[in-house]
Design goal:
mainly beta, about 270 residues, about 55% strand, eight-stranded antiparallel barrel, two-stranded antiparallel ribbon, elongated
Amino acid sequence: MKAKTILAALLIAASSWSMAAETVDTIVVDNVEKVTVVTRDKAPTIILNDSVAKDGKSWCGIQVKRSKNKRSDAGDVKSVPYIQIGLNTMLDADMGSFNLWPSFDVALGVRTNWYPYGAKNAWSIGVGIDWRNYRMSANDGFWMKDADGVMGLSAFPINAADKKVALHVTSVQVPVLYTHYFDSEQKCYVTLGGIVNFNFWAHANRQFELGEETYDINTKSIGQRPVTIDAFMQVHAPYLPAIYCKYSPMDFFKKNHAPKMHQFTIGIAF
């Protein structure tokens, strides 16, 4: 009986020694700058044979990756610049044939983003300057005003050569947008909203050669709408440029001034 008691005591002691020798550690990697090690030992000995390696390399056999999370807290506000470069045309035009190339749209400005519910939802308002050029087929003639100030098309001289016709518009624009991000790094998103354009300057241009003379004539006060609104959409996916398009359901010219036509643009944004 005494022998059995001694044997049981030895087994318990051996088990306790084995458990003590076998440390159970939990390693929590918050980020590459901070590592917390929790152990059951009162005075553990920790040996680091390797330094923390970034970009997916291992740290003491543990795969770690540098955090690239760009999430914003709810209520954050930040301002970002934007640049848009695209191609223009006129849709539903009942006079003249407009060409997507070489008609350009260039806009630049600053937009302020508000994240009321976290980084994946942003409401934005901004201000910028937009320059638009609409190239038209010269075979349809050039733009000119009649005695009542109404814009219409007139034919070029019969012997005219190297003919070019275009409408030019410069605007102050105010985008009012909503963006939904599908990832925390904000690399995949869709933006919807409207752009208010204050069209403070516009003119029609015609260029041609007649004999040995070269003509470059601008027609001002063409009767464009002073304020137009564009429906706007922009999408972006990782490793691809952002694509935007905008369409104005409003006529380009004022009511009863020249033909009806609607502005359309598609391009890339930065």
